[in-house]
Design brief:
heterodimer; A: alpha+beta; Hypothetical protein af1432; 12% strand; B: mainly alpha; two-stranded antiparallel ribbon; 10% strand; globular
């Protein structure tokens, strides 16, 4: 271990190294708040091991993004492209490595409590909150550390990489793909980490092969530089897509996890002023809200707010019917069942995957590019894989009723379906 | 939302057919369509979210429209090595749920006629310019140097020529 570097034990990657500057950022109260933001909201109601937080995920993303960056720049053909396109010299490459590490470390610092669970109550994307925190609350610890005398990295540049500010980063905005794309360090970490903590094996892929074969190439239609996987590693790209599909269907969109997102949202609508998180201009107020403060509210309002009681007593609403949406048609049975529930005066909640926020929908259809190492031309994974092109978005409509109505509703639904 | 979805599919189908009617050999790929729809957005023909992806405006929503339209055979998407995607009208005659009014088709056709001689690379430059100018506080004179920083493969004078010749006509009209 070099003088002034530290190592943190991590269950996924063994050890994660960091320097003194990064350690100071991690020790800031803003970053420490991530210890109180669970990675998978109430997924532990289904998979009890899912109690990990955004804290260790953020360390993991920093680690993976560095492995990816180093793998890319260690290939001469990539260095040539980077020098041609971005006028890079060695110092620039070293500086941007540090910039990518910091952006990866801080990309989730603006997450609301319980991560994606209550995202509908955010006035703007969590990335915008992350950028605001970096620009204002972390500016000093970022810009005034002695290690930064070598780099002179501005908080504004880190925020720009997270937000996608091309005005500040210009061509170097390319590195944003390591933080946010089909092939980003964020996904590469959460698939492995969430699998590990939930105990499922769906998110597992050949991480070493992915790092080994990650590269850059040229997309032919507009001649843009793109991140991709070398031809020899296309199977790992395929595995990544399949892993994502399975973990979404089996974990993130699990029927019980989804209804807890609903209960959580209702709790927060009661807890927050005007039922929304503070605007990012009130960032200090926002930072005071974490999982602990929400739990405190849930416990205090157990008797007066139904959703608090549902969470505390695990008497969540129960799913009575689910139908997959195929192509663009809407299912028919759902309407029949809804009519029946209305007639019987049974309250229901409808969960439609098409109304989910972008963390699910965003990049479902975006292709991973496969790079020919000889001419650096990129082609889409679907040209190579017979599997991934068929894995569309998992779209569903589910109906839930209150715990006390479940048995009654279940009985007459059978009649409707017959 | 459902209506918007069907409407966008109808606009996509019409645009692909119109572009092929004008020039059947021209490459109409995903990038070209992304940028064309960005211009439609700008002209308030559609209203879909765009954000920065890679170097310019990109809509994940439109990408899902493209993929669903391909799945149900409203359009055909193929890939040619070293060239990229080619999107063609489908041979199947589809009766869409939403039909475009004539005035809507005219608006779309007017824009298509303005971009018909441009390729994806040129359209990307113009749309990225508009995205930057509308999103960030910068002066127009800075825009060429920013575009040059992200499109080093194109000569700066060529970027300026594309910008001077087409930008106003597409975005300030």
């Amino acid at each position: 271990m070099l003088d002034g570097t530290y190592e943190i034990r991590d269950p996924i990657f063994g050890f994660i190294s960091l320097n003194d500057w990064e350690k100071e950022i991690i020790n800031s109260k803003e970053f420490q708040r991530l210890r109180r933001i669970k990675q998978l909201a109430f997924t532990d109601m289904v998979y009890p091991g899912a109690n990990h937080t955004r804290f260790e995920h953020s360390l993991g993303v920093m680690h993976v993004s560095t492995m990816m960056y180093d793998s890319i720049i260690n290939k001469n053909s990539n260095i040539n492209i980077l020098r041609e396109r971005f006028d890079y010299n060695d110092a620039g490459i070293e500086r941007d490595r540090q910039l990518v590490r910091l952006a990866a470390l801080l990309h989730d610092i603006g997450h609301p409590p319980f991560s994606h669970g209550p995202e509908n109550l955010m006035p703007s994307k969590h990335e915008e909150y992350s950028a605001e925190i970096i620009r204002n609350l972390l500016k000093d610890v970022i810009e005034n550390h002695k290690i930064n005398d070598n780099y002179k990295i501005k908080a504004e540049e880190i925020a720009a990489l997270i937000e996608g500010n091309i005005k500040i980063l210009r061509g170097r905005i390319f590195w944003r793909d390591l933080i946010s794309s089909q092939l980003d360090a964020d996904r590469c970490d959460y698939l492995l980490r969430d699998s590990y903590h939930t105990g499922v094996k769906y998110g597992i892929y050949d991480y070493d092969r992915l790092i080994n074969t990650i590269s850059i190439g040229i997309e032919p239609e507009a001649d843009n530089i793109v991140l991709g996987i070398e031809e020899g590693g296309w199977r790992v790209a395929e595995a990544l897509i399949v892993a994502r599909y399975f973990i979404f269907t089996q974990v993130y969109l699990h029927k019980t996890r989804r209804i807890y997102d609903y209960h959580l949202t209702k709790v927060l609508e009661n807890m927050l002023k005007n039922g929304k998180f503070p605007n990012k201009n009130y960032i200090n107020k926002y930072m005071n809200i974490d999982d602990f403060s929400v739990w405190n509210f849930i416990i205090s309002n157990n008797k007066s707010i139904e959703d608090c009681s549902c969470i505390l007593n695990r008497k969540h609403h129960r799913m009575i019917y689910e139908e997959e949406i195929v192509k663009e048609d809407f299912p028919i049975n759902i309407e029949k069942i809804k009519n029946k529930l209305n007639k019987k005066k049974i309250w229901y909640y409808e969960d439609n995957s098409r109304e989910l926020k972008e963390w699910y929908t965003k990049d479902t259809y975006e292709e991973i590019m496969i790079i020919n190492e000889n001419n650096k031309k990129a082609s889409p994974l679907s040209k190579w894989s017979k599997v991934t092109g068929k894995l569309g978005k998992y779209d569903f409509i589910r109906l839930y009723v209150r715990y006390i109505d479940f048995e009654r509703a279940k009985n007459f639904i059978q009649e409707v379906l017959q | 939302m459902k209506e918007d979805f069907d409407k966008n599919i109808a606009i996509l189908k019409h645009s692909i057919e119109k572009l092929h009617e004008i020039n059947n050999d021209k490459q109409i790929g995903k990038t070209f369509i992304q940028k064309l729809f960005y211009i439609f957005n700008n002209n308030k023909i559609i209203n879909i979210p765009y954000e920065l992806y890679h170097y310019g405006p990109y809509s994940f929503f439109l990408n899902s429209i493209l993929n669903i339209s391909e799945t149900v055979n409203i359009i055909n998407i193929s890939w040619r090595d070293n060239k990229g995607y080619f999107i063609k009208p489908s041979n199947e005659n589809h009766e869409l749920k939403t039909k475009l009014e004539n005035f809507e088709k005219e608006k779309i056709n007017t824009i298509i006629n303005k971009v018909k001689d441009l390729n994806a690379k040129q359209l990307s430059i113009l749309c990225t310019a508009n995205y930057i100018l509308s999103k960030f506080d910068i002066e127009e004179k800075e825009i060429i140097s920013i575009l040059n920083s992200v499109k080093k493969d194109i000569n700066i004078s060529e970027i300026k020529k594309i910008y001077d010749n087409f930008y106003s006509n597409l975005f300030n009209a």
